[in-house]
Design brief:
Blueprint lengths: L3 H75 L7 H6 L6
């Protein structure tokens, strides 16, 4: 008598039962994944809405830094009629006149 068919059917039954028992966990994982995707979509929407404001603030900061740089350059050339090196400006030291 050939026992290959019953063994094959038994293996199929065990695999099917294992898959059925795994379905609740699989559904939990799919639900968590769906929730994560929704959160990523919300974060992406927030970033897209805030990006123009961040760019505007960075441009404003750049303009302020350019103005400070300009004032420092004017102050350094007018100090005793001589050029002050960038190293002297950073350290605050002055060369003797």
């Amino acid at each position: 008598m050939d026992l290959a068919l019953p063994r094959h059917l038994s293996r199929i039954a065990r695999t099917t039962v294992g898959a059925v028992w795994g379905l609740p966990r699989l559904m939990t994982v799919v639900t968590e994944l769906r929730d994560a995707v929704k959160q990523i979509e919300r974060l992406a929407t927030f970033a897209a809405q805030e990006l123009p404001e961040v760019v505007y603030q960075l441009e404003k900061l750049r303009a302020q830094l350019a103005e400070i740089e300009h004032r420092l350059a004017v102050a350094s050339t007018s100090r005793n009629g001589r050029e002050v090196s960038p190293a002297e400006r950073r350290s605050g030291s002055r060369r003797p006149s």
